[in-house]
Structure formats: C-alpha cells, structure tokens
Amino acid sequence: MNDRIDHKAVNVVKGLIMDGTRKADSGHPGGAMSSADYLYILFKDFLVFNPEDDQWFDRDRFVLSAGHESMLLYSLLCMSGYLNMDDLKAFRQLGSRTPGHPEHHLTPGVEATTGPLGQGLGMSVGMAVAESFLRSRLGREICDHFTYALVSDGDLQEPVALGSAALAGGWGLGRLIVYYDSNKIQLAGPTDRADCSDYKKIFEAFCWQVIEIDGHDHHQIRKALTAARMEDQRPTLIIGHTVMAKGSATLEGREETHGAPFSPEEIAKTKEALGLPADQEFFLPRDIVDHFQERFSSLVAKADKWEQRLDDMLRGSGEKASFWKFIHSDPGSRVLDLPSFEAGKSIATRKAFGSCLDVLMNRLPNLMGGSADLDPSNQTVRFRESAGLFHNINNPSGRYLAFGVREFPMGAILNGLALHKGITCFGATFLVFSDYERNALRMSALQMLPVLHVFTHDSFYVGEDGPTHQPVEHISSLRLIPDFFVFRPADALETRFSLELALGRGTNPSALLLTRQGVPVLDLEKYPQIAQGVSRGAYILQDMQDPEIIIIASGSEVHLALEAASLLAPARIRVVSAPCLELFEDQDDAYKKRVLPPGISRRFAVEAGRGQLWYKYVGLEGHVYSLDRFGESAPGKVLAQEFGFTAQKLAGFIQERT
Known about the structure:
- By secondary structure, the protein is of the alpha/beta class.
- The protein has three domains: 2-298, Rossmann fold (3-Layer(aba) Sandwich), CATH 3.40.50; 331-520, 3-Layer(aba) Sandwich (Rossmann fold), CATH 3.40.50; 530-656, Rossmann fold (3-Layer(aba) Sandwich).
- β6 (209-214), α9 (218-230) and β7 form a beta-alpha-beta unit.
- The chain starts with a helix and ends with a helix.
- 51% of the residues are buried.
- The mean pLDDT is 97.
C-alpha cells in the first residue's frame, strides 16, 4: 500500500514540476523528473528537520547543487508546509519565493543559493566540516546531523566539484551523503559527447564510499541511504542511474527536456499516463500531503527534546554552554584585542595580518580557515601549528583547513561553513589567484555571507615572480562585485582596524588585500583619526589649511602620497587614505563632501593597478596615477622605478598638471 501511494506521490510531484515550468514558460523539467524518486524518499523518510522551524540548529542540511532542478525542491517544500500553492504558481516571477534557482535568503527550507554548477557540492562539504567541528565542541546531544547534496552530470563536470570532493574524502567526512543523478543527458545532448569519466572509480580514489543503484527504485534508494548513514569514516556518493524526464509520454531521455517546459499536449498525455487528472493544474491531493507528512509529529517531538537538552546545557556554566553563547553572540560585540604596532617600523601588511591571526586564534574559538597551499606566504603557519589540522576522524576539533592548491573549492567550502552558521571562517591565497576563486567570491556576496577572504602579494611589488603573479586588474575587479567589501590597508594599523571591521560584520563578505613588501607603520599619535577613518572607508589622513590639491590613495601607495605631498610643499595638499571604497560609499553625502569637497577640482588618485574606477572620485578635471599594463620579472624596488611608483615621479606628475 505504501509503495503504491509513494509512487503516486512522486507522480504528483512530477505534475507540479510540469505545471510550474509550463506556467512560467521557463525552467528545467527533465532533470527534476529524473531526480524526483530519490528526493521524495529522502525528504519523506530520512531528512531530519523541524516542520515548524526551518532554522532549527540541529536539522539535516540539504543542498540542491543541481539548482536548475529547483521546481522539484519547491514542490517538496510545499508538501512540507514551508511554501504554499501560490508560491509554486509564482515560479520564476518577480518578487516570488520561488526564483529560477534556489536562493537561501528568499525561500524557507533552502539551505544554499545554487545554480552555478559544482559549487553546491563544495558548499555541502563546508557544511559537513562545520557539523563535525561543532559536534566535537558541543557534543552529539546538541550537534548531530547529516549533510545531503544532489548533484547532476553538469555538477561533476565542473572541476570545483571534484576538488571539493577530494578534500571531503581526505577529511573523512562520514556525514556527507551526495546523490548523483546520472541521467546521462545534459543541455546540449548526451553526456558521452563530453565526458567518459568513471565517477565510481574517481570517487573511490577520493576515499569515498560509492553505491550504485537504480535511481527510480524506492527500495534501492532506501537501502543506499541507510548504508550511507551507517558509514562514519568516509563520505558517500550514491550514483542513481536514471532516465531524463522519467514518466513523460514521449520525451524520456531527450535533451530538449533539460531546459524547456513541456508543451501543453505533452503535459496532458504525461499526466494521463501517470494517473493524474489531465485537466487539472497544480494537483496536490490531501491524502498525498498527509502521507508525506506522516513523520512530522515525531520530527517536531525530536526538535522539542533537543530544545530541552539545549536548555539543560545552557543552565550550566560549562565549556559547552560558553561556546554556544559565543557562537551566537553578535560578531560586532566580540573583544578581539588585536596587537599594536611600532610607529615607523617597516612591516608588510601580510605580516601584520599574521600577527593579528596569532591573537585571533585564541579570541575566536570558532575560527576555522586555511590557505591554498601558501601557508608561509599568507602568514597562516602559526595558526596551522597551534589550531591543528582538521580531520573528521583524527582531529575534528582542528581548525586549520589544508585546502591544497584549490582556490575555487576553498571559496565554495568557506561559503558552506558560513551557511551552516556557528563558524567564523577565512581563506587565503595570492591576490592574482582571486580569479580562480572568483565565482565563489560572487556567491559569498550574493548570499550575504560573512566570509573573510585574505589576498596577499597585492601588486607588482611581488617582484621577481613576474607578471604571472603580479596583480594589475584584480583590485578593481573585486570592487566590481556588489555587496563585497574590499579592504586595501595602508599599513599594519589600517590592517588591524580593517580586520576588526571585517570580522565584526554579521553579513557580507570582506577581502583583505595585503602587501608582500614592508611599509612604514603610521604614527597613531600623529594620526589619531586612523581607527575612525578606516571605519568610514576613506578619511583625511593629512591636511593643510584651505587645501588646493587632494591626493587619494589606498594600500602601499598612501605612503607615496604622503612623500609626494612633502616634496610638493608649499602647495597645500590634502592626503586621503581610502582603504575601503565600499564603506566610503555607505557614508552620508555630508561626510563624503567633507573628505572630498566639490570645490577642490585638482584631485589625484594613485594605486598600483588599473585606475579606471578612481575617476569617480577625481572627476573630469582630475587625474589617476595607475598601472594599466602587465608587470615584469624583477625586484620590486626596481619595478617601482620602472613603473614610476616613486615619490619623485608622482610629485612630478602632479606638478605638471597643476
């Protein structure tokens, strides 16, 4: 009896998928229909969640990495009570809770924003890491859940997925269960045109348990999920062999079902074949919903018992209670007590970050992160040695994540850590390699995740490594990402204050762009406005009465601006340090005009990278002193002379134009 009603329920879900994509005249029904059996069984019989609270802490996480199958997820969330029928009818429409690809901040029950293929798998790895670490700190009574993901052929063709999978296997993430819907069709046609990979062998080589099943057989699905949940030493890949658009009247196995709705005629014939009323749209009978929700009372009871255990723990004053309270505290209220730096001393801002990180590892007990195989260069060695390497089995309380040379997977995994919540996370690499990570950075911003991205070696001063390692366009490129805060501090003090601001944000990612070369530490007694100034994004660092010229700079070029201003005396020059243009844009107009008065048209901006974005601040009559070409292989000081980044040449440039 249950088998019959389960199959009927899956057919109802397929009807919702067809109707939703047809009404929107847009969407991806084929893959959603091939994955429907698995996801229905997962949600109905295995997934642990609270039907009354989609944010319950100890819920299982599910990530639809194949985000184009969103109508399948929305249908199940409707059956779960998180969405309603009007939401399904508003699929892909402006302002709806059912956008074309899942967005976690819009839709209850959606754990991650997905669509760019491969990254959902990476984010699920991050969630599994977070669960393992938090379980080691809070105990299984408080943190004891699984992370599930559904991936498509296209997901596994994206290298970010395989890089993330390799890390998951190496870290022994036994509570990560990934279902691969292998329907062997992608948008352009059969997958064998583009891929001959044996994913069973690949994932076994990645130290995963791999189970192959008929993805339409409910008994095999349940058996595979049970086996996956029993394996605690390895993550599990369930390969479900399925048929694209399974159940359709005439389109099974056809690539055109991947990205286009069925015709009304095909929908009518398919509904008839599936035993659904052909003349009724968005058919969801009460008996199907009741059957799907059979476990709901026990799920609510489970969550209630968890709440009682949490209350019992919090009534105490032990380490677990303290840790729980800390991870749920306002990030902006945490006392970091970062180090001070000696005025005038030459310190690379990357080293200033390293000094701050040495303090943060004790101040932030939930701090997790690592470097993309650049530990000494990124100044993360001491954190690695003190915090320990994370491993689910050998050291789940370790906080250092050895990402290897995997910038893109690193970014996606960091997003998963942040999405899980309870973790403060960072990742580090060279600025020039931010391009490898870029779409994960974009997804950080799109999801409003408080991830810290640390990029060292921020300009041509990298030197002898040459143009392949010298960023030119990257500073401006990162600033183009909406809701992404780019900090390029001038010295160790601005680095400290930028780091405090980044870690104090509850939303939105931040990037720290840090120097390889030493730069003088600004004198806090001479410039007491630094801390407040950094918090406003740009500020008057040095001023003259009735200034006639403004020089705006960021990073190491702030010191060039100060030196050039000195050489240009007695000209009345204001020097503005601009460590974060995004924060400056958030200030009111009165402050912006105070820093950059409209009446002063002789303005100059200086930065060792592409300069086009600076014209917004210097205006039509202003000038930008920048580097708009690739670098050269030579010592940094030699390149400074070659590219004109000296105080004398900057002063000459300004003098010629005033």
